[in-house]
């Protein structure tokens, strides 16, 4: 007993000491929390000492904001947070208290901490916060009160009791001696009462039917008494009677029929024993079975259906008068047709049904800027069969009230307010479906507010490599620029669909400034003031080349269609150029081969309205060789002929299914060509027609994932007439569907060649059947998906499923492998091929499923792709980049993976498994890379910064900073530098400035000039062209710009290289008043001497005075020729509506040394203008640095002796005459003297030693 007493006293003493220390610690923490805590909440029912938890950060400020929910923290960290925290502290990851950030935030000890992006002022986004909580390590507390229990009485108008309870619990198991008891009661009671007893009538029921339709009748309605006690009753009657049918009964039918009698409702005359014979066909003459037939006066009453021959009979239709008949069929446009009669008493009719086409927007609303109080017209026009009959307008995603705004196709907004700014789009609907337009941006500027910010924004231009500004190490100079956004100008009429002359923020004033480069001065024209001016509208061109997907054979003289109209023809090499109107939003081009060697291929082209010209390398599929089949038999045609693999599916054509355009059944031999675009062959991905998108019922364009496409061509053996086919079955072998969830969603689609959109043909049914046919050695039983279709006007079909697991991939293109943010390339076509999510084929383990292309802008490109959150390698992608027909090189992945070069940080890079094509085989091309499309985990910080973004976060991808994760491409070219006195961005033609010193004098036509310089020497050298005004009085002697380019080695000739140097073309300036022959100086940057000049060029320059003096042998000077000389002169001139295209073509010709060729391999023997010899300087003795490395002791001793001797020489010559030299010359003279004296003394010492 004594021992137990001592033990209790000891435990009590230890507890008091612990609690005392805890109190001191609690006070210290409390004092600290007053200084740094964002919000502190205390709980009066918690006892004991307290301590802070670790910091928690489970969310990042992407999406809607930053949410540090207490419930989520407990889910991830379980027991690390107490049940009832007493206080909370929030800080940013930069250790700034939440109260000091100036952001609007929220907090609660029950819910946690959160910050919402849209609540932040000035468009800011929330910081990244982490939080911690203050918890008592030992605590006893009451749980939350339970809900109040039911009232103890259920009788109306009675009083009872309600009870609620709580429990006293401890958060941590400890001896009872250390657990303070909870204060208070564990239960509470309160009085409750039930409402008074009531009796109320229920609402009246519906009126019953009238006892008579005319002449007077009665109808009744009833209600029920609802009461809470039998002691109360409802007042009133449960039944109510009303008179009805008061209209007088009509007289007998007054219709007079010349033939027959009136029908029961007296609406038409019917003739018993008479029949109407009808014939319903498609546009191609194919009979349409299953069409419904009704009288136009009663369209909902179906009177007959067409049979398999498209014919029907309708009894009771009189032949003496014409009747209007309505014909309807799914996927066809309904039609009303009048009957015809003859003297025999028979009636007949013939109806032609056109295929229904979903609506398609042909005129989209355009971006507009207006002042507050003004008005605006937004237009939207759609086509389709039948034509759209309903239009809906939306503002920022909200449907506008049609009664309030009174709109149809066009939306008119008057007395504009600033809150009406935002995105507007329309939705057009018809019985065939809906379509949404692209959104237009309406900007409403407050009155008295400048339409354009007059202060230019910062724009850094790179200076020449030898330009070093004194006092700074910067290689850049701020020349300023005006943001080329739309502004509100003075319109002659503001109620046009498209403003007659758009206004943009442009250059109002420029000033000439001088950049001090140390050794020389560099002039520049800097922007100092901006204003609202008429926009520069560059000519938008789409160029490219159409070649075969298998061997790059060009499509020669192919026909080019946009919509129904033919707009051009491809050239002998397959090239084409299309001029696009400025209001084009979606460009669908159909390439048709008149020789029928290739299948007709519709393509959806992306284009850039700013850069003017985009190049597309178009692939088309070679048409499959036709086979002979008997139209009277069942025919099987395989889909897919990969060697060693089973076909993906089959076409099954029943006997007597072929028909001519007249509708006549064709009997005989059919020349059948079915070309299958097999996803197991990745080389066919670029030949996919359309853009693999469909429009859903809401009008949104969504992506498809293909399992194969096929083009059909059936022709009469004798006269090659195109044949149609009905009731064709499409069998898809389910063994090729690697994702089982795709099987129930699989559909058969056909391509609308005018819109480039895939439209649904039919669903598939799941069945087991026997397959066989051409090319199969045996018939076997397999599981197939079976779809049905009719081959009418459309000849391109697709086996696709909609896929909703989507992401965006961020890609940027750069001028060089230095990956400088200021050297990003715009107008680069980035293409992404989605590959099969699961390995399954020996020929191509990951077959492709989708092909997308996107154009890079000033902040790169975001490519849509399929991705998966569960398996990182479920989906993979193959990505390429092309600029003007040139493939760009991807960042390397071998011999060592470098995240700084690839642009993606670890460990996310390993998860994506980035590999360039030459990763395992150096012989492969370097122009593509492959990645896993792992959907980012938003709870993992390493995956929230790109390069893959969730589909809902497109805005985050488009606005991602340049230092965020992204994949990279770069141009493979020699060191090149371009400097313009008047800054201009060739990838944005709207940056052109009207100035005499502009390198390009005309923004609608760009002329690129190059001269070929040959270098004899062991090294590749930089060659500079310095371009001055020559003969124009406004520019004479003033600098236009500088061009530097490194010569390219001629691989066929030793010690020889050549450079294609750009120079300022001679010709009219922007005022078109007088010609300026620019003064061009070519200077190789080395120990070079000019040895020859092209004879024809020299003769031309002499015959076209004035002639520039060429007194210096280390350079070449000329006045730029005005005529477009060719390769015989060593001058290469190309004129185009896009500067980059003109330069690319001119460089290709210069490399090739011809006036019409193209090469990327330098041929220094052809088409040369000037030749220099640049020998290397031989080193006769070691430099001081080399001697210090080889023998430092002896070198330092010798330097000390030389310095002493030089001091003695200076004392002896102090009385001689002083001759003034320039500093450099004096230094060289003294150096020669000292060196000579040193050599003489060294020689004397050597002789003495000998």
From TrEMBL:
<dbReference type="Pfam" id="PF23708">
    <property type="entry name" value="CILP_5th"/>
</dbReference>
<dbReference type="InterPro" id="IPR013783">
    <property type="entry name" value="Ig-like_fold"/>
</dbReference>
<dbReference type="Pfam" id="PF13927">
    <property type="entry name" value="Ig_3"/>
</dbReference>
<dbReference type="Pfam" id="PF00090">
    <property type="entry name" value="TSP_1"/>
</dbReference>
<dbReference type="InterPro" id="IPR036383">
    <property type="entry name" value="TSP1_rpt_sf"/>
</dbReference>
<dbReference type="Pfam" id="PF23591">
    <property type="entry name" value="CILP"/>
</dbReference>
<keyword id="KW-0732">Signal</keyword>
<dbReference type="InterPro" id="IPR036179">
    <property type="entry name" value="Ig-like_dom_sf"/>
</dbReference>
<dbReference type="InterPro" id="IPR000884">
    <property type="entry name" value="TSP1_rpt"/>
</dbReference>
<keyword id="KW-0165">Cleavage on pair of basic residues</keyword>
<dbReference type="Pfam" id="PF13330">
    <property type="entry name" value="Mucin2_WxxW"/>
</dbReference>
<dbReference type="InterPro" id="IPR039675">
    <property type="entry name" value="CILP1/CILP2"/>
</dbReference>
<dbReference type="Pfam" id="PF23599">
    <property type="entry name" value="CILP_C"/>
</dbReference>
<dbReference type="GO" id="GO:0005615">
    <property type="term" value="C:extracellular space"/>
</dbReference>
<keyword id="KW-1015">Disulfide bond</keyword>
<feature type="compositionally biased region" description="Low complexity">
    <location>
        <begin position="1225"/>
        <end position="1237"/>
    </location>
</feature>
<dbReference type="InterPro" id="IPR056256">
    <property type="entry name" value="CILP-1/2_b-sand_dom2"/>
</dbReference>
<feature type="signal peptide">
    <location>
        <begin position="1"/>
        <end position="20"/>
    </location>
</feature>
<dbReference type="InterPro" id="IPR025155">
    <property type="entry name" value="WxxW_domain"/>
</dbReference>
<dbReference type="InterPro" id="IPR007110">
    <property type="entry name" value="Ig-like_dom"/>
</dbReference>
<feature type="domain" description="Ig-like">
    <location>
        <begin position="359"/>
        <end position="443"/>
    </location>
</feature>
<dbReference type="InterPro" id="IPR003598">
    <property type="entry name" value="Ig_sub2"/>
</dbReference>
<keyword id="KW-0393">Immunoglobulin domain</keyword>
<feature type="region of interest" description="Disordered">
    <location>
        <begin position="1210"/>
        <end position="1250"/>
    </location>
</feature>
<dbReference type="InterPro" id="IPR056255">
    <property type="entry name" value="CILP-1/2_dom"/>
</dbReference>
<keyword id="KW-0272">Extracellular matrix</keyword>
<dbReference type="InterPro" id="IPR008969">
    <property type="entry name" value="CarboxyPept-like_regulatory"/>
</dbReference>
<dbReference type="Pfam" id="PF23730">
    <property type="entry name" value="CILP_8th"/>
</dbReference>
<dbReference type="InterPro" id="IPR056257">
    <property type="entry name" value="CILP-1/2_8th"/>
</dbReference>
<dbReference type="InterPro" id="IPR003599">
    <property type="entry name" value="Ig_sub"/>
</dbReference>
<dbReference type="InterPro" id="IPR056258">
    <property type="entry name" value="CILP-1/2_C"/>
</dbReference>
<protein>
    <submittedName>
        <fullName>Cartilage intermediate layer protein 2</fullName>
    </submittedName>
</protein>
<keyword id="KW-0325">Glycoprotein</keyword>
<keyword id="KW-0964">Secreted</keyword>
């Amino acid at each position: 007993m004594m021992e137990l007493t001592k033990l209790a006293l000891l435990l009590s003493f230890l507890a008091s000491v612990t609690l005392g220390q805890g109190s001191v610690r609690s006070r210290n923490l409390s004092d600290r929390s007053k200084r740094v805590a964002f919000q502190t909440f205390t709980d009066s029912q918690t006892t004991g000492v307290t301590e802070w938890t670790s910091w928690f950060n489970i969310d990042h400020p992407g999406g809607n904001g930053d949410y540090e929910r207490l419930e989520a923290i407990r889910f991830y960290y379980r027991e690390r947070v107490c049940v009832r925290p007493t206080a909370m502290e929030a800080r940013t990851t930069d250790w700034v208290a939440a109260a000091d950030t100036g952001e609007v935030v929220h907090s609660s000890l029950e819910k946690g901490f959160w910050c919402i992006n849209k609540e932040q002022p000035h468009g800011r986004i929330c910081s990244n916060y982490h939080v911690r909580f203050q918890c008592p390590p030992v605590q006893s507390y009451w749980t939350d009160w339970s809900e109040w229990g039911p009232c103890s009485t259920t009788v109306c108008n009675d009083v009872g009791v309600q009870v609620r309870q709580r429990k006293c619990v401890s958060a941590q198991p400890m001896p009872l001696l250390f657990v303070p008891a909870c204060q208070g009661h564990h239960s509470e009671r309160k009085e409750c009462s039930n409402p008074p007893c009531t009796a109320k009538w229920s609402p009246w029921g519906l009126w019953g039917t009238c006892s008579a339709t005319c002449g007077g009748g009665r109808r009744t309605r009833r209600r029920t008494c609802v009461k809470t006690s039998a002691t109360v009753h409802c007042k009133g009657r449960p039944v109510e009677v009303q008179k009805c049918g008061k209209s007088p009964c009509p007289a007998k039918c007054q219709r007079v029929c010349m033939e027959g009698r009136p029908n029961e409702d007296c609406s038409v005359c019917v003739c018993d024993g008479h029949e109407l014979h009808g014939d319903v066909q498609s546009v191609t003459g194919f009979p349409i079975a299953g069409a419904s037939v009704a009288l136009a006066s009663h369209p909902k009453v179906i009177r007959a259906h067409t049979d398999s021959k498209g014919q029907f009979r309708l009894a009771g239709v009189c032949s003496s008068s014409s009747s209007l008949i309505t014909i309807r069929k799914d996927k066809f446009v309904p039609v009303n047709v009048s009957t015809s009669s003859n003297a025999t008493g028979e009636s007949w009719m013939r109806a032609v049904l056109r295929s229904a086409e979903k609506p398609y927007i042909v005129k989209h609303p355009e971006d507009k800027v207006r002042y507050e109080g003004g008005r605006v017209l937004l237009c939207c026009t759609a086509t389709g069969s039948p034509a759209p009959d309903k239009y809906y307008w939306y503002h920022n995603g909200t449907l506008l009230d049609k009664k309030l705004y009174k709109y149809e196709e066009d939306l008119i907004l008057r007395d504009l307010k600033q809150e009406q700014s935002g995105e507007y789009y329309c939705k057009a609907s018809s019985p065939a479906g809906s379509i949404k337009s692209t959104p237009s941006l309406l900007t409403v500027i407050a009155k008295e507010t400048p339409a354009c910010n007059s202060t230019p924004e910062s724009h850094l231009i790179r200076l020449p490599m030898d330009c070093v500004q004194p006092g700074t190490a910067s290689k850049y100079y701020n020349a300023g620029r005006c943001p080329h956004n739309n502004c509100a100008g003075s319109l002659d009429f503001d109620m046009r669909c498209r403003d007659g002359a758009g206004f943009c923020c442009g250059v109002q004033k420029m000033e000439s400034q001088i950049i001090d480069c140390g050794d020389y001065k560099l002039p520049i024209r800097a922007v100092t003031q901006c204003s609202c001016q008429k926009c520069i509208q560059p000519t938008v061109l789409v160029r490219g080349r159409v070649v075969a997907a298998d061997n790059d054979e060009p499509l020669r003289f192919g026909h080019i269609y946009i919509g129904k109209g033919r707009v051009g023809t491809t050239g002998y090499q397959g090239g084409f150029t299309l001029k696009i109107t400025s209001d084009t939003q979606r460009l669908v081009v159909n390439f048709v081969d008149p020789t029928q060697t290739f299948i007709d291929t519709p393509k959806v082209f992306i284009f850039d309205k700013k850069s003017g010209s985009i190049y597309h390398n178009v692939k088309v599929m070679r048409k499959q060789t036709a086979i002979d089949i008997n139209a009277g038999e069942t025919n099987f045609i395989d889909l897919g002929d990969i060697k060693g693999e089973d076909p993906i599916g089959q076409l099954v054509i029943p006997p007597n299914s072929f028909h001519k355009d007249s509708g006549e059944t064709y009997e005989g031999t059919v020349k059948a060509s079915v070309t299958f675009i097999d996803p197991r062959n990745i080389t066919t991905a670029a030949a996919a027609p359309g853009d693999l998108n469909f429009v859903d019922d809401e009008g949104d364009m969504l992506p498809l994932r293909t399992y194969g496409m096929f083009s059909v061509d059936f022709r009469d053996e004798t006269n090659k007439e195109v044949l149609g086919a009905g009731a064709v079955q499409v069998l898809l072998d389910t063994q090729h569907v690697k994702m089982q969830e795709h099987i129930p969603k699989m559909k058969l689609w056909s391509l609308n060649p005018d819109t480039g959109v895939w439209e649904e043909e039919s669903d598939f049914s799941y069945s087991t059947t026997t397959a066989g046919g051409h090319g199969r050695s045996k018939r076997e039983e397999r599981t197939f998906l079976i779809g049905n279709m009719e081959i009418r006007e459309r000849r391109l079909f697709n086996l696709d499923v909609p896929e909703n697991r989507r992401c965006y991939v961020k890609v940027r293109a750069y001028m060089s492998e230095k990956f400088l943010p200021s050297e990003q390339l715009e107008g680069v076509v980035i293409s992404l091929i989605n590959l099969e999510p699961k390995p399954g084929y020996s020929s191509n383990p990951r077959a492709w499923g989708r092909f997308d292309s996107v154009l890079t802008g000033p902040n790169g490109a975001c490519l849509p792709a399929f991705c998966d959150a569960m398996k990182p390698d479920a989906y993979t992608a193959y990505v390429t980049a092309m600029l003007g027909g040139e493939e760009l090189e991807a960042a390397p992945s071998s011999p060592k993976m470098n995240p700084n070069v690839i642009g993606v940080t670890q460990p996310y890079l390993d998860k994506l498994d980035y590999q360039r094509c030459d990763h395992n085989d150096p012989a492969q091309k370097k122009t593509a890379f492959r990645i896993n499309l792992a959907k980012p985990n938003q709870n993992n910080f390493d995956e929230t910064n790109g390069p893959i973004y969730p589909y809902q976060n497109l805005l985050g991808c488009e606005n991602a900073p340049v230092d965020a994760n992204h994949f990279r491409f770069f141009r493979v070219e020699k060191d090149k530098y371009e400097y313009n006195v008047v800054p201009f961005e060739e990838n944005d033609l709207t940056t052109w400035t009207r100035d005499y010193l502009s390198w390009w004098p005309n923004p609608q036509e760009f002329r690129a000039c190059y001269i070929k310089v040959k270098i004899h020497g062991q090294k590749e050298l930089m060659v500079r062209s310095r371009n001055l005004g020559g003969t124009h009085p406004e520019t004479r002697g003033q600098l236009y710009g500088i061009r530097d380019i490194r010569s390219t080695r001629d691989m066929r000739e030793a010690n020889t290289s050549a450079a294609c140097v750009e120079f300022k073309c001679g010709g009219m300036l922007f005022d078109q008043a007088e010609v300026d022959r620019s003064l061009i100086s070519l200077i190789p940057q080395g120990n070079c001497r000019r040895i020859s000049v092209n004879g024809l060029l020299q003769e031309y320059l002499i015959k076209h005075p004035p002639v520039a003096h060429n007194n210096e042998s280390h350079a070449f000077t000329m006045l730029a020729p005005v005529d477009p000389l060719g390769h015989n002169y060593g001058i290469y001139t190309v004129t185009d509506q896009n500067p980059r295209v003109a330069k690319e073509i001119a460089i290709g010709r210069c490399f090739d040394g011809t006036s019409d060729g193209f090469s990327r391999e330098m041929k220094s023997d052809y088409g040369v203008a000037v030749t220099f010899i640049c020998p290397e300087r031989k080193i006769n003795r070691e430099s001081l640095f080399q001697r210090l490395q080889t023998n430092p002791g002896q070198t330092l001793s010798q330097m000390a002796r030389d310095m002493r001797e030089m001091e003695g020489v200076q004392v002896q010559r102090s009385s001689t005459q002083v001759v003034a030299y320039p500093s450099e010359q004096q230094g060289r003279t003294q150096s020669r003297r000292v060196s000579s004296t040193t050599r003489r003394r060294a020689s004397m010492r050597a002789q003495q030693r000998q």
